[in-house]
């Protein structure tokens, strides 16, 4: 019971922090400018970790590698705490689980962005955050829209993207035990 509670707390805190790191990375890749309060919050929360890493690993070709490395380090800390509580330290398993956790966070983040876009489109398409969310989803939805045009004025590309992300997540989850056996 204590292990489950500690794991829950660590997973929640690291997951939220990693989502800010991934959001920072994704916004810089797409070169979108979020509203000032959101940008300020993201940078204030993550600068303490990203800036030291950036001194060692500068950005390259418009990608903020320091944010991605920081995300992996957060996942690694989460896995270390989890395995420390279990009193097991298989290094290979910890690294694989940390990498899996980062991929999981990326998939969950993309799913959340799709859901947010759907909510904005139904509730208030002209909300201040709607253009930001739309811009962050474009790289994922444009290839799908080329294959699946809107039908009767309805855009099913977010639904298909959400379905594909779920499939990728399930495939990765099913293959994780085999990866841990390596």
From TrEMBL:
Q: Which key words are in the record?
A: Membrane, Transmembrane, Transmembrane helix
Record-linked InterPro entries: CCB3/YggT
In its keyword annotation, does this UniProt entry include Disulfide bond? Answer: no
User: A Gene Ontology CC term for this entry?
Assistant: membrane
One Pfam family name is CCB3_YggT
Segments spanning the bilayer are 5-27, 65-86, 98-123
Q: Which PANTHER family match?
A: PROTEIN COFACTOR ASSEMBLY OF COMPLEX C SUBUNIT B CCB3, CHLOROPLASTIC-RELATED, YLMG HOMOLOG PROTEIN 2, CHLOROPLASTIC
Membership in a protein family: Belongs to the YggT family.
The protein's name in its UniProt record = YggT family protein
């Amino acid at each position: 019971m204590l292990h489950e509670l500690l794991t829950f707390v660590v997973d929640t805190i690291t997951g939220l922090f990693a989502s800010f790191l991934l959001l920072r990375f994704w916004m810089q890749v797409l070169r979108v400018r979020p509203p000032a309060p959101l940008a300020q919050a993201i940078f204030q929360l993550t600068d303490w970790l990203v800036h030291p890493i950036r001194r060692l690993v500068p950005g390259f070709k418009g990608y903020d590698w320091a944010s991605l490395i920081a995300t992996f380090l957060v996942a690694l800390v989460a896995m270390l705490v989890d395995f420390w509580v279990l009193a097991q330290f298989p290094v290979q398993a910890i690294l694989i689980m940390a990498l899996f956790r980062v991929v999981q966070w990326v998939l969950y983040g993309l799913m959340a962005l799709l859901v947010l876009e759907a909510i904005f489109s139904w509730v208030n398409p002209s909300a201040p955050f709607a253009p930001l969310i739309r811009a962050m989803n474009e790289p994922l939805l444009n290839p799908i829209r080329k294959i699946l045009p809107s039908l009767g004025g309805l855009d099913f590309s977010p639904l298909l993207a959400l379905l594909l992300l779920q499939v990728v997540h399930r495939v990765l989850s099913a293959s994780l035990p085999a990866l841990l056996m390596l």
